[in-house]
Amino acid sequence: MNETIDSLRFRITKRFGTKTVLQDFALEVRGKQFITCLGPSGCGKSTALNIIAGLLPATDGEVWIDGGRIDHLPPEKRGFGMVFQNYALFPHMTVFANIAFGLQLQHRPAAEIRERVREMLDLVQLPGFEDRYPGQLSGGQQQRIAIARALILHPRLLLLDEPLSNLDAKLRIEMRAEIKHLHSNLGLTSIYVTHDQVEALSLSDWVVVMRDGILMQAGTPQDIHDQPRNLFVADFMGFRNFFPAEVATAGPEGEVEAAASGMRIRGKTRHSLAPGAAAVAAIRPDDVVVGAAASGPNVFRGKVDIVEYLGREHEVILTLESGARLWVHTQAHLTPGEFVPVVFPPERVIFLPSEGPGGIA
Amino acid sequence: MRLRRTGEPSELDLMAMACLAPSLLYVLVMFIYPFLYGIYLSLRPLKLPGFSLANYVAFFTDQYEYMTVSITFRLAVPNTIVVVACSLLLAYNMRRGIWLERTITTILVLPISLSVILLGQGILGFYGGRGWFNQLLVGLDLLEEPLVLTHNFIGVMISLFMQQFPFCFLMLLGYISGIDPSIENSARTLGANPWTVFRRVMLPLIAPGLAIAFALVFVMSFATFPSAMLLGQPSGATRTMAIAAYAQAFEQFDMSYASAIAVLMGLFQLAGLLVILLLRKRMVMAATMGVGKR
Amino acid sequence: MRGRMWRLALYLFVLGFILNLLGIVFYVTVSAFAKRWFGTPLPRGFTTEWFGYAWKEFGLARILGVTIFVALTVVCLALLLGFPAAYILARRNFRAKPVLMLLYFLPLLIPQMTYGIPLATTMLRYGIGGTVTGVILAVLVPMVPLAVFILMPFFEQISINLEWGAAMMGANRFQTFRRILLPLTLPGLLTAGILILVNTVSNFELTFLVGGAGSQTLVVALFYNIFAGGVRPVYSVDAMAMMYMTMVMILLLIALRFVRPTQMVFRLDQPRQ
Which segments of chain A are extended strands (E)? Predict the structure, then answer.
């Protein structure tokens, strides 16, 4: 039985031919943590996971576990569990055989294997499925078998490569809860890879946002969600309203007032922005308040263009007096053509350094 | 479009029939009919009235003829095993892509398209007594006398290998690379070393393709004609069933007897196929046994 | 480390095989240009006389003509017969489909020698044995199914929505065929045509069994001359072999511009998992 690790440390670079997929990507994972690598397709997150698992060699760099280098260890000797996006169950073996595979390689006695497989199937809520074949199972069931197969070996580190991407929305929510449950109950250390920010936020202790092989921001889910450090992360985490602005005043606690195409916007920043600096004001659609306060900071008027009914709320697109577009999520009932006041609560507006023409892309 | 009771379209309307008819008729008339005619003819020996098995009896009582069966098996079986083994070995280890893959596959297409005749002539020269191969070995003092590699069993084997290895290799390469790589990866993260991965995970998944490869190569080797003629001793040690059939048809002009031999050849090929199928069932069972039932 | 040695050994094997192959083919080439060659690494002198000799002595003009005529005819007929069948088989499902597919598959699976003899016999009986017509008809037997199997995937790739869209806009069957299907399947026709061409030119067993004196293709004539042993100088036979090889190589070069090497081999598709 492997206890979980104390720490996993790595700094890796990976090149495929002339293409650099990971550039000095460095991370430290502590025992029992749930870390998510979050990013769009092609950002290198799956590659990083495969390198940690030992399935791919790094072009450059090192991987350390508890003070020992494991670079040269083949995957079968690392004691990690891995769950793949397409489940990768062995199609020619029964569910029992799939789950028992690792234990049989360890030559455990048959009775013990039977017992542990049964326990595992109970744990993933598929009791009695031993004799079925993967081809007879639904996506969600296959994924649970894949998880069972990895967990039964008490891996000291669990790697999950977008395990929920192939499931439909409802199943994804259920499985998310199960993964969280398993992680905390079994005291696992997990590295999770996904492009879905909701998964990242709900499951993780620590989130690492990646883009093109480079670490864009690392922090707690709250940090990443509320205080993105650059335009890419802000955009990825749902800030849809960006206003290029020039800083007018900057206070000692990070308060900023800036001019953005005729509007004066007040907000906060974690960067050091001097007066005259080019910056971008950002606010989430959910944070914009429609109607109400006719005075105070950050009050603007907009004309409603499009209203989409989303059930509980509406997604509304407005054009502000300055000509800029504004996305808002509101419960208010608006009609296209209507003029409404909108307020950006200053504590919900963040300022980020401008990044020149290629900022968000 | 007519809908069947189950709600699924059973679409064989007039247009479909018209599209299928020409080629279907062609295969029926030019393939099935001669085939059946051949069987019919084999049962009507040249010198006897009516139907009889005389041809078949004659075949199995004439040593010069029935020895072709063992000769053909002795050529086909080892060749098939060697070709498939080499192809599997190579294809498996190259499944993740190889250096110069495009070049290698292009060159390997040559034997398939150049035809066995050209290769045969080349082998006669290259491996002949005074060809480059022997010249090299003698010249390097590795041999005293040149090896006799042509006009015998060995020559035929060389020719068969050169023809069929590229074909079998390319076929298996395509098949094996089609297997999802994450299956292999997951096995390794579960603690299996590369050999165990091959034996317990990959081989069962490759088995269907392997069986087909075996079947195709065996069937092709069994019907070998030009290789045996050009590079062997067609009237002696390498007189295959195909040669015997040909001789009866075009030298003795006994079409009936020739057809009988062709029928027998087909039957032996069928027998070989059945053996392969049985072996495959065994192999799959062995791989999944010991995996532990409840 | 063991992994490295393994890979090295395999590469050596492939290398060895390829060298072997190239050696064999090259030997024929050198011999075709040899004045006189006996036991030495390279011939004493080089000449091109054997080509002229072979041309005249073996009647290559006629043989080449027959080969080209047979090849082109087979390509046209095979495509003509196979195209509509491939369309139906790709688009429709019906109960008899597996049986039909097996039927089409048999001439490709069963070796040509096995069914060639009954075929030749039948042709003799109906008086077309030994004629160019007979050769064409014989080679068509495996080539029509080949056309069907090559064309099917190309049809499967064309979404049926394209045909339905055309129909919604008022096109009848023929117009849909001419303006939508045909242009989109052109690559398929090209691929199939080239593969059939290469296969026909290098076909031996059927052309051998069915061919007669005036209807020999290049390969068959080559075979007879090799088999004839010492009657003709080996250099002339090699010259003829070289001409055959040049022809096939040119075809191959053209083919490989449109087709990947693995497509020229019988495809085994993994069952979808």
Answer: 7-16, 19-30, 34-38, 60-65, 68-69, 80-83, 157-161, 190-194, 206-211, 214-219, 241-250, 255-260, 263-268, 278-283, 289-290, 299-309, 314-320, 325-330, 339-343, 350-353
> Do B174 and C248 count as a contact with CB atoms less than 8 A apart?
no
Residue of A nearest to B181 (CA): A88
Whether A130 has its CB under 8 Å from any CB of chain B: the answer is yes
- Chain B residues with CB under 8 Å of A113 CB are 292
Q: Are A274 and A250 in contact (CB under 8 A)?
A: yes
Query: Residue B32 phi/psi, 5° resolution?
Result: -65, -45
Question: What long-range pairs does A174-178 form, CB within 8 A, spacing at least 24?
Answer: A174/A140, A175/A140, A175/A143, A175/A144, A176/A202, A176/A203, A178/A124, A178/A125, A178/A144
B294–A130 C-beta distance less than 8 A: yes
C23 to B180: CB separation less than 8 angstroms, yes or no: no
Amino acid at B277: L
DSSP 8-state symbol, B9:
B
The chains in contact with chain C, meaning 3 or more Cβ pairs closer than 8 Å, are B
Q: Is the pTM of this model over 0.90?
A: no
Cα–Cα distance between A243 and A349 in angstroms, integer? 11
Q: Which chains touch A (3 or more CB pairs under 8 A)?
A: B
Nearest-neighbour CA in chain B from C51: distance (Å): 16
- Summarize the confidence of residues C93-100 as an average pLDDT: 86
Q: Which helix (H) or strand (E) holds A18?
A: none
Would you say A159 and A81 are in contact if contact means Cβ atoms under 8 Å apart?
Answer: yes
Q: Which amino acid is at C174?
A: F
- Tokens in use for A42? 């092609």
Would you state the structure tokens that stand for residue C229, as one six-digit string? 């042993």
Contacts of A57 in chain B (CB under 8 A): none
pLDDT of residue C170: 81
**Alpha helix segments (H runs only) across chain C:** 2-32, 49-57, 60-91, 97-109, 112-125, 132-157, 160-168, 173-176, 182-201, 205-210, 218-227, 234-258
Q: Can you tell me the mean pLDDT for A36-42? A: 92
The chain B residue lying nearest A129, using CA atoms, is B294
pLDDT, tens only, A128-182: 999 999 999 998 999 999 999 999 998 999 999 999 998 888 889 989 999 999 9
Q: Smallest Cβ distance to C262: which of B16, B90, B170?
A: B170
- Please name the member of B188, B205, B292 whose beta carbon is closest to the beta carbon of A92: B205
Mean pLDDT of chain A: 89
Which residue ranges make up each domain of chain A? 7-231, 239-353
**CATH superfamily, region A7-231:** P-loop containing nucleotide triphosphate hydrolases (3.40.50.300)
Judge residue C160's burial from the number of C-beta atoms within 10 Å of its C-beta, 0-12 exposed, 13-18 middle, 19 or more buried.
Answer: exposed
Q: Is A53 on the interface with B (CB under 8 A)?
A: yes
How many angstroms away from the CA of B211 is the closest CA of chain A? 16
Q: Residue B225: enclosing H or E segment and its boundaries?
A: none
Give the pLDDT confidence of A268-284 residue by residue, as tens digits.
Answer: 998 888 888 889 999 99
Per-residue DSSP letter, B27: H
Report DSSP state, residue C178.
Answer: I
How many alpha carbons lie under 13 Å from residue B258 in its C-beta half-sphere? Answer: 26
DSSP B3: B
CATH superfamily of C50-261: MetI-like (1.10.3720.10)
| A321 touching chain B per CB within 8 A | no
- Chain B residues whose CB is inside 8 A of the C81 CB are 22-23, 26
| B179 part of contact set with chain A, CB < 8 Å | no
| Domain over A239-353 is classified CATH 2.40.50.140 | yes
* Domain B65-288 listed as CATH 1.10.3720.10: yes
A112 in contact with chain B, both atoms CB, cutoff 8 A: no
CB contact under 8 A, A97 and B291: yes
